[in-house]
Specification:
The structure holds four protein chains of four kinds. Chain C is built from six helices and six strands, in the order αβαββαβαβααβ. By secondary structure, chain C is of the alpha/beta class. Chain C has one domain: Rossmann fold. In chain C, α2 packs across α5. Chain C is globular and about 50 Å long. In chain D, α2 packs parallel to α13 and α4 packs antiparallel against α6. Chain D is mostly helical. The chains are: A alpha+beta, B alpha/beta, C alpha/beta, D mainly alpha.
């Protein structure tokens, strides 16, 4: 049977965001794949050099609608460190609360999407229903469901009232019940097990070699978590655990994410209960001194790195964003080969691709039919004689 | 290669390539010559267990392009190898043979800054967009969109 | 409004169109926020299936194309192609501030900025991102527009109105209908 | 069957075309409503499937580039006609007016037609997703059709007849076959689920993998017809299982005024068909989609195995207990 070239995306129901794979399949088996990202490329990094810090924060939130707080916080904490600014404890706690709520909403979203990818729409609906509780909390605290805009250089924009804290705390216990239920469901439901177990397996060595980050890496037993390795906000002061798993497949990634959901809910509870009194922002100077910083932040999808360089003005001279999804693509390309077409959506979904973040500045394109060697390029993992290659229509 | 890697070891082992200066409590930065990059990465990998590439950052300093390779290992020390490339001839050997994830970052930099990575397995003509004109690198400081030029998308009055 | 001289079959089809708008979502380069809010519409809390709205993967099955976000250069030609794949009668809703004007990304280099410079848009929804109820409201507004179009015999009347300068644009804000 | 007018009425009004389409749309509504309620949603209104079909009929028809348009038009019609004909042999009010010896085989044959027609549609459209979906549809056909046949064969063996009406009347005298053959009943349900391409067997139209499979390029009236075909196949399949395993639309005794019998039969038909639908919908809601290779594995190892075991048990029962 000749190889079949199946284009997936950019407009495809499995992908809520645009990306393009050209799957070269032999029957139902994938032998090769070519990635094409950057359908959302906007040029944010260029714009970040032209706008001042106050204006950059809302722009950075819109790098991605799901991990919006991550980008803004990573940038704000980097700039604050360059300025030598110590932000008040209450602001740090509030930032942590929003960050962990965001992680919860992102992981719940992921769990729903993963269930949808295997056609299990009921779980999808249930999870997204529970996610609304998190969204309500976020909306109460910040005024918006998606782009919270809580960050300012030097602190946070708005304070939490006792009523908001009480409401948020009252939403946690039912949510924790549901999280336990999902963990139970994932380890006992037949269709979930047969679609998740052994799919997209990656050993610890491979995860290290291909540079996987976040839950994808932690599911393979790679114990990297920027929250613990390079403590920021309040992660160095409060009790919490890094969740890891050893199975390395989609099942493991699901378990890690549900475990993190639990941890996040505990962090949110702790922070809400131990929220210190005091101001919520420090006076920040308009200009940042000359300096550079590598600001690491554990976004829901993995480690986010902002490289910020300032030059004494109120604008950043250079902002270089390395998103977690970009780091994970190499490992996805590796995982997919040898699996069947039916597993593409779930394996791709398992890294929780946030293409909008990634495409902010990346193009990966494979020269068609080139004899390029395997793994390093991250796009062609196994060689094949040039397949019947149609131009993408 | 037993035992923990200490900051002193990093400074000691990397001395042959340049002076590693402590930037932050866990981050060291050092300036190296572009042609020694490959050796430096290999040394860091082999002797100091820097097994992960955090990212490759790029900056346009005016006359030069600055590349920063941020390496990290299980000891959680970050080593930033910084090197300067002349603007006229920006090219450097790839490190994607040592660290596979570097490939994807190198492509991105090639696309947006026009820096060539020699020996990269798939560094073909990379574009932001299929119709993006040649020799235009949007993240260079001196780049401005040319209003008379077609950058892709939909042409006026047709598909 | 009065529906002049329509056979029973035409009326039946019109009724059916009102009751069963199938949507197809196209991300033309947005930041995901609008997309997740649209998916949230399908979920138990908002449940658009009670209005007969279904999200379909294939544009061939869709009646309404929902475009999220600004149009990046790379997506522009794809957007046009997806639009052409939808069978008539078709309507387009541009969700979010970026779709209308570029929003926070206004002036960046890798984008077309406006959805209506690529395909004709019938309804705009404001917000960054709009809440799910606003998106549902936009679909309802689109259905009203559909009804008005049928009563006037097609979409042309809006074109003429625009040319006559009576109105500034083909589209109306979501809340206006 | 002597009066041609009556025959026409039976074909076009009851229990034929009109009744069947109306009931199929109602079943489609109920299916979606049950799923919605189980997913904690409100779900669509009653007229929703009708609106969908009418709207699709009124949409523009787009011909895929390079497809044989005449064939592309005819295939949905053939599939539609096949399932429609199949239903005529299934008893609705007591006995089917068109019943003859061996009608079970004809019904099974006619119900098998939608899947190959989907394959042909997928193949003809020259769309890669449709083609892959079509191949999956035909692969799946080979997996579920054998157990499904075997499962429905067992009641026929036990009743000693290939006629649905004879099987129904056997159950009227004795017990329902679900008590004799619980395994066969389950296999038949699973087979029907696979035949109708519903979760966990919605592999050919897996939305997240291959967009809509063979349906991707269907527009307008073709889509409407294929949609209706599968709704009707759902009715016909549920009714067939209700007739073969749940005693069919007859009471175990005869009611006093003769006209009450068809009415009671009708009521039983509705109740039993809906009961089967409830089961099918619950399966659909409670599972995710499995992979085609996993289906091959499960299908041949367990489902076909169970069907063979069931046939074996039936043969043993028949040998020990000679049916009068």
């Amino acid at each position: 049977m000749p190889d079949v070239v199946i284009p997936i995306g950019p407009h495809h129901p499995a992908l809520k965001e645009p990306v393009n794979f050209r799957i070269i399949a032999d029957g139902e088996k994938i032998v090769r794949l070519e990635l094409n990202l950057s359908y959302n490329h906007r040029g944010i990094e260029k714009a970040a050099e032209q706008r001042n810090f106050t204006r950059v924060l809302p722009l950075l939130e819109r790098v991605c609608g799901i991990c919006s707080h991550s980008h803004a916080t990573a940038f704000a904490k980097g700039v604050e460190e360059i300025m030598g600014l110590e932000i008040p404890p209450r602001a740090r706690y509030i930032r942590t609360i929003i960050a962990e709520l965001e992680r919860m909403h992102s992981h719940l979203l992921w769990l729903g999407v993963a269930a949808h990818e295997i056609g299990f729409d009921t779980l999808f609906m249930w999870v997204w229903r529970d996610r609304e509780a998190v969204m309500d909390t976020l909306e109460e605290m910040s005024g918006n469901r998606v782009h919270y805009n809580m960050n300012e250089i030097g602190g946070v924009r708005c304070d939490l009232t006792p009523g908001q804290i009480e409401a948020a705390l009252s939403r946690l216990p039912p949510l924790e019940e549901r999280i336990k239920k999902y963990l139970d469901m994932v380890s006992s439901h037949e269709t979930l097990l047969i679609r998740f177990r052994g799919v997209g397996r990656m050993t610890r060595e491979e995860a290290l070699q291909y540079g996987a980050v976040g839950p994808t890496a932690r599911a393979s037993g790679v114990d990297y978590d920027a929250r613990r390795d390079d403590p920021y906000l309040v992660y160095g002061e409060i009790p919490w655990n890094v969740v890891t798993d050893t199975s390395g497949d989609v099942y493991g990634r699901t378990r890690v994410r549900i475990g993190e959901l639990w941890e996040s809910s505990q962090i949110v509870r702790y922070c809400l209960e131990h929220l210190p009194e005091g101001p919520i922002r420090a006076d920040a100077p308009k200009n940042a001194p000359k300096g550079e910083i590598l600001s690491r932040y554990e976004a829901p999808r993995g480690e986010l790195v902002h490289f910020i360089r300032t030059n004494g003005t109120d604008k950043a001279e250079r902002l270089d964003i390395r998103t977690p999804t970009l780091a994970n693509w190499t490992s996805v390309a590796k995982c997919l080969v040898g699996h069947s077409i039916a597993d593409i959506p779930v394996i791709v979904a398992a890294i929780d691709p946030c293409l909008s973040c990634t495409s902010r500045m990346v193009v990966v394109n494979k020269e068609r039919g080139s004899g390029a060697a395997a793994a390093p390029c991250g796009c062609i993992v196994r060689q094949r004689p040039a397949a019947r290659d149609r131009r993408e229509t | 290669m037993t035992g923990a890697v200490t900051p002193e070891m990093v400074v000691e082992q990397m001395k042959q390539f340049g002076t590693a200066a402590r930037v932050r409590n866990d981050r060291f930065s050092m300036q190296i010559a572009p042609d020694r990059l490959h050796d430096a990465v290999r040394t860091a990998q082999a002797l100091l267990r820097f097994d992960r590439l955090l990212t490759i950052s790029t900056a346009d300093t005016g006359e030069n392009f600055e590349l920063l390779y941020h390496l990290i290992g299980p000891h959680r020390i970050i080593l930033s190898l910084s090197l300067l490339l002349p603007r006229g001839q920006p090219s450097i050997p790839t490190i994607s043979d040592l660290l596979p994830p570097a490939a994807i970052y190198e492509r991105q930099i090639h696309d947006l800054f026009g820096i060539r990575f020699d020996g990269h397995p798939g560094l073909s003509r990379l574009m932001l967009n299929e119709d993006w004109p040649e020799n235009e690198y949007p993240l260079r400081k001196d780049w401005k969109p040319d209003p008379g030029r077609f950058y892709g998308g939909i042409k006026e009055g047709g598909s | 409004m009065a529906v002049p001289d329509m056979g029973i079959s035409r009326r039946l089809v019109n009724w059916a169109r009102q009751k069963s708008p199938w949507i197809s979502v196209f991300n033309s380069g947005a930041c995901n926020a609008c997309d997740i809010e649209i998916i949230a519409c399908l979920m138990p809390l908002f449940d658009v299936e009670r209005f007969g709205i279904l999200a379909k993967g294939s544009p061939r099955h869709a009646d309404i194309l929902i475009v999220t976000g600004h149009v990046s250069l790379k997506q522009a030609s794809r957007l046009r192609r997806v639009f052409e794949q939808i069978p008539e009668p078709k309507y387009v809703i541009a969700v979010g501030a970026c779709g209308a004007s570029g929003g926070v990304f206004h002036g960046l280099y890798h984008m077309v900025e406006r959805v209506d410079s690529v395909i004709p848009v019938d309804i705009y929804v404001a917000g960054c991102p709009p809440r799910p109820d606003e998106i549902i409201n936009a679909v309802v507004a689109c259905l009203n527009l559909m009804q008005e179009d049928t009563a006037r015999g097609g979409k042309e009347w809006r074109q003429k109105k625009q040319e006559a300068g009576m109105n500034s644009g083909t589209a109306r804000p979501a809340g206006a209908a | 069957m002597s009066d041609p007018l009556q025959t026409l009425a039976e074909i076009f009004i009851f229990p034929g075309f009109l009744f069947l389409v109306a009931f199929a749309l109602f079943m489609a509504f109920l299916d979606r409503k049950i799923a919605a309620r189980m997913q904690q949603r409100i779900g669509p209104p009653l007229f929703q499937p009708l609106a969908d079909v009418v709207k699709m009929l009124g949409k523009e028809v787009i011909d895929p580039d390079g497809a044989d348009i005449r064939l592309y038009d005819i295939i949905p019609l053939i599939a539609f006609a096949a399932v429609m004909t199949a239903f005529l042999y299934i008893p609705v009010t007591g006995y089917s007016p068109f019943a003859f010896t061996g009608d079970l085989v004809v019904v099974l044959y006619l119900l098998a037609i939608p899947a190959p027609s989907l394959f042909l549609l997928g193949w003809l459209s020259r769309n890669i997703f449709s083609t892959v979906g079509g191949i999956r549809a035909i692969t799946q056909l080979f997996i579920y059709e054998v157990p499904f046949f075997l499962a429905l064969l067992s009641p026929a063996i036990m009743a000693g007849s290939w006629s649905i009406s004879a099987i129904v009347s056997w159950q009227q005298q004795n017990l329902w076959f679900i008590f004799f053959q619980p395994i066969g009943f389950i296999v038949a349900l699973v087979g029907l689920q696979a035949k109708l391409e519903r979760a966990p067997f919605d592999i050919p139209e897996a939305e997240t993998e291959i967009i809509a499979g063979p349906w991707t390029e269907l527009t307008g009236r073709r889509l409407a017809l294929m949609n209706l075909t599968f709704s009707i196949a759902l009715v016909a399949g549920s009714a067939l299982i209700a007739a073969l395993f749940l005693g069919g639309p007859v009471l175990p005794w005869t009611l006093a005024p003769a006209w009450l019998n068809p009415v009671a039969g009708m009521g039983l038909f509705l109740a039993k068909t809906l009961a089967v639908l409830m089961l099918l919908s619950s399966i659909r809601v409670a599972t995710g989609r499995i992979r085609i290779d996993q289906l091959t594995d499960i299908g041949w190892k367990y489902i076909a195995g169970a069907a063979v075991v069931q046939v074996g048990i039936v043969l043993v029962i028949n040998w020990l207990w000679v049916v009068p």
